[in-house]
């Protein structure tokens, strides 16, 4: 399976480095029920990663030269990897001058925050888990996000609210974007598209609001495709033109449950 993944990356023309482990790359799959259009995801636990293997990953990240301007840490940690792994990577990356973008949840997110990543992208449910609060209203969400920023646990919080849009919170700014108007065929890849587009835009010099608009456009483009197909560059640019930002105070409430974006 690892060789298959490497082949797919090569076919896309993406540079990568393979860090081999003893176990096989995990496979996940999704099922869409045609009668209700509900989506079911089956996420496998994957192999256990040994201490020597995850330490090798840390050493390789520490030795990146030149250090990346942005480093994205995304997803749950494999079995065997300590819950503070992302916290260790954040401290290491910041020492080399990299900005870390963190997209994870649960104890891994909680333990990473004191190391102060540059940007975090929780969903509404993930922010609820982090804070232990119900976060019933937009004001509750804004307050929770601001507390993270004011505590210097992140410079930027990009909070996704599923069908309710998304909220951007920094020390000096708050912005809200409505969900892109599109027919939802699948939510697979929308969250990763959100993060990827934001980092891509920031990397070429966009300000955080402009990057936020691109993230909404990329997520919306992904939602319009079935399965694992994502939005094209042309689609993202088209959606970007329709993304407008407003004061988050104009939002009345946030939904209790939302698709993972």
TrEMBL record:
Transmembrane segments: none annotated. InterPro entries: Carboh/pur_kinase_PfkB_CS, PfkB_dom, Ribokinase-like, Tagatose/fructose_Pkinase. It comes from the Bacteria. The lineage of its organism: Bacteria, Pseudomonadati, Pseudomonadota, Betaproteobacteria, Burkholderiales. Keywords: ATP-binding, Kinase, Nucleotide-binding, Transferase. PANTHER family: 1-PHOSPHOFRUCTOKINASE-RELATED, ATP-DEPENDENT 6-PHOSPHOFRUCTOKINASE ISOZYME 2. It comes from Ralstonia flaminis. One of its GO terms (molecular function) is 6-phosphofructokinase activity. The keyword Chaperone does not apply. This is ATP-dependent 6-phosphofructokinase isozyme 2. Gene3D superfamilies: 3.40.1190.20. The gene is pfkB. It holds the Pfam family PfkB. Belongs to the carbohydrate kinase PfkB family. Its EC number is 2.7.1.11. Residues 3-230 form the Carbohydrate kinase PfkB domain.
């Amino acid at each position: 399976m690892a060789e298959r993944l490497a082949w797919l990356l090569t076919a896309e023309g993406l540079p990568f480095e393979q860090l081999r482990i003893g176990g096989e790359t995990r496979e996940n799959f999704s099922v869409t029920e045609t009668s209700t259009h509900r989506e079911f995801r089956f996420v496998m636990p994957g192999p256990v990663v040994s201490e020597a293997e995850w330490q090798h990953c840390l050493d390789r990240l520490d030795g990146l030269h030149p250090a990346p301007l942005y480093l994205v840490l995304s997803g749950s940690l494999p079995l065997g990897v300590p819950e503070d792994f992302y916290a260790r990577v954040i401290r290491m990356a910041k020492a080399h001058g990299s900005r870390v973008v963190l997209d994870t949840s649960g104890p891994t997110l909680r333990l990473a925050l004191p190391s102060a990543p540059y940007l975090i992208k929780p969903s509404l449910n993930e922010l609820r888990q982090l804070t232990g609060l119900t976060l019933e209203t937009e004001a509750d969400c804004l307050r929770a996000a601001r507390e993270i920023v004011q505590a210097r646990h992140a410079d930027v919080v990009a909070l996704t609210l599923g069908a309710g849009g998304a909220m951007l919170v920094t020390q000096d700014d708050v912005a809200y974007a409505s969900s892109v108007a599109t027919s939802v065929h699948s939510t697979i890849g929308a969250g990763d598209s959100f993060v990827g587009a934001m980092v891509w835009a920031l990397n070429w010099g966009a300000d955080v609001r402009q990057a936020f608009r691109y993230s909404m456009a990329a997520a919306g483009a992904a939602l319009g495709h079935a399965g694992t197909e994502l939005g094209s560059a042309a689609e993202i640019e088209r959606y970007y033109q329709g993304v407008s930002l407003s004061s988050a105070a104009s939002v009345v409430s946030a939904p209790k449950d939302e698709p993972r974006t």
